[in-house]
What does this fold into?
Amino acid sequence: MFMHQPILPMLADIWLSPGASTIAGPVDWLFYFILYISTFFFFLILTLLIVFSWKYRYQPGKVQPDAPKHSTALELTWTFIPTVIVIVIFYYGFKQYLNLAVPPPNAYQITVIAQTWSYGFQYPNGSVDDKLHIPAGVPVEMLLESKDVIHGFYVPEFRVKKDIVPGRYNRLWFQCNIPDTYDIYCTQYCGQGHSKMRSTCTVESLAEFNNYLDRLSHPVGPKDQIGLHLYQTRGCMGCHTIDGSKGTGPTWKNMWGNNVDFESGPSLIVDAPYIRESILLPAAKIVKGFPNVMPSFQGQLKDWQIDDIIAFIQTLSDKYKPEPTTRPTSGPTTAPVTASAAAGAGANLAAIGPVDSAK
Amino acid sequence: MSSTPHANPNAVPAVLYVTPPEDNYLTHDKGIMSWIFTLDHKRIGVMYMVAVCTFFLFGGIFALALRTELFYHEAWMVKTFDPVTHQRVVDETATLILYNNMFTLHGAIMVFLFIIPAIPAIIGNIILPIMLGAKDVAFPRLNLMSLWIYWIGASFFVYVLLGGVLNVIGIRLPGGMGLDTGWTFYAPYSTTRSLAGVVPATMGAFTVGFSSILTGVNFITTLHILRPRGMTWFRMPLFLWGLYATSIIQILATPVLAITLLLVIAERTLHVGIFDPAIGGDPVLYQHFFWFYSHPAVYIMILPAMGVISEVISVFSRKHIFGYNFIAFSSIAIALLGFIVWGHHMFVSGQSALTDSIFSLLTFSVAIPSAVKVFNWVATLYRGSIHFKTPMLYALGFIILFMVGGLTGLFLGALSVDVPLHDTYFVIAHFHYVAMGSMLFAFLAGMYYWFPKIFGRMYHENTGRIAALVIFVGFNLAFIPQFIAGTKGMPRRWATYPEKYEIYMRFSTVGAYMMATGLFIVAGNWVHGMSRGRKAPHNPWGSNTLEWRCSSPPPYYNFKKSPVADDPYNLGNWQYVSEEEGWVPRQTEPLPSAPPDRTLPITH
It folds into this structure.
């Protein structure tokens, strides 16, 4: 159908990056339709402006012939034609919008949990990742929820966007048939980290997607390695550094086992109960010199995930000496562990075989 | 040009034009108290000019600051000393916080303290009464109060700025530590998070709103009761139609903003629960309240601007404006239609599909009267005799830039195309074309046009023309790349961004600096003109509106005897006299007699 071809492919690259969703074709068509109409009228009026400015410039002694002060015929014409054009533009925009607004009945639902300043994508099996993966060729519906302020969910190359509003569920749907990785941006100003609130959407074959889901719900490896992965993917990295440099929140380097002062109340030594409380009830104790902006992860991190984060934080501190152990050091795995693996040195996340499902 | 010559019983006696009075409104009373407590609309307008232009400078400095940060795609502006490596490193957190303050204050100061008041409070206050041949506005004391209220409201913003600056050196003013919500103050960020400056800033915007409302009341009344003999509604200059339409919006819409801001303050301090979903409120409700005012607000910005353009195009083409009735009606149409389209700012907010669709359809309706005005201005040029003085250059620039702004609005009004473009740089470029490219250009056109009347001196013409060209080029260089960054997906209000957008951001920053340079040239042009310009005649441009019948600058009482108005675009009434470098009444070219007097006598 004509709406699926860009009008002038050569000029397309100036304005729009290639569209990748099923709605992108018609939307881009309408974009170019409006662009070419606008360009036509702009240059028409501009030409008249320039020609009149030149032809009727003041020349000493030259008297211009009389000209009418009004023309109802002209007024009606140049009222009627733009009216028709805008009605046409409205109509196509409206039709395409109905398509955008109504997801297909069999859409695959993924929940987007937005908080300052990261995304969590929760799949139907319950596991959460900070990157979005979807199968190609399948309509996907995003259920958008926010934990705090209004955020935005925007995938430029899919031409879809919706605000993520706390207190309600907004929805949007799309289908992408072209495997690749696409940008996700936050478009509603949400505070300090707004510019950094980004993610990616990886579109892959159904087999690869199922593989991904599997790996997500059954992470394998030493606790602290899983903890590192959680640090990188669940939003901790946005505010806490691990090399001692200053961030929005306290650095995790040399945090474990050392004294910490709070804005109010007695200081204490950082231990597992304190870290757990900081993750679930961050406002309970605010470290001196830092703002009270950490969102709660209540309901978002399972107990074993909190344990793994604690294990990771321990490895960052001088005060922590890992005890040699013959007990399993990874999360929910039943595979036997060798002494070298127990030392926690570089075990591969995907190394060990299938395991029981996470608690 | 008028058609057949016959005797003019209403021609102003030439003797009035020979000697301007020694004493004018600027010199009449001395001392600071005679200014602060003046009732003279012209002095009030000049004081507004000083305040409004000062805030334009602040807002502009913040714009340059944020454009400078955006020159590089990573955060770079704020550096701190790293005790571990003993080097100065970028403090990204502090840079992001600074940037968020800069873009918020740029927007808030520009919208509330510059764009909305500029043409009505400066040019409107000075020119409207003398364009009516009147002694003053209908309520001079209310006018003074509007100015004082503006000062009070502005000082709230100064407090927030001061708080932000002092905070850098460790002094914390209560509630004054900066503002980072964006000028739109969206809840729940503004009501639950954000920096403490939200309360003083919203108090400031609330207060300044009353300055706007009272000016609107004053202008509507003045236009109803103080029009002179001969000036029926349809013999009113189009600048006054523009101010009338603007005043209607000011008095109907601004109170909604006032209440909305009070609700934000209540929410933030008393936790009432109107907008915060955590305690049962609705954030989208805030957006409806906010945009119900803020969309008509943009018509408050543009209608006086269009009025200025109508005057300038006609006078500098030496031709009667084309389509007077349609231009006048379109001003009223824009004012009324502007009230029913606010939802187009909320197409992706989660409001219902039905709401989205209705607002999209209504949004296109408001495009039509604006287009009609553009066609009429271009038609005015036809068979004119065009003089390319500085005001005319800005007016022609206005037409070009307003077309771009208006046409890009079509993209944003179309539902499916708005979805990818909303909250991207495309929107930023769109509104700068209409707010800055159009409104600012019209403001400059009006200031240059009425400069001789206000200050009694001529500005240096060639400097004015060069500055206009620099600003025009700089403006387009600054904002055309932003359209492309937006269509390619770059969100707005981002301090750091993916590297692929850097080329657009860099051109944009260079353009911004170029524009700033042009604006500094304008400032110098005005200051030089005010103090050392050649003395101006009564009517340097040959306009037929009544303000050119008193001296330049006018005496404090404006007119000894109220002039009789005829068709304001009857330029044939005047002829150029080279000794005066100005225009004097043409005694041999008369007019049809004036219609019956329906105006009230002038009283204080």
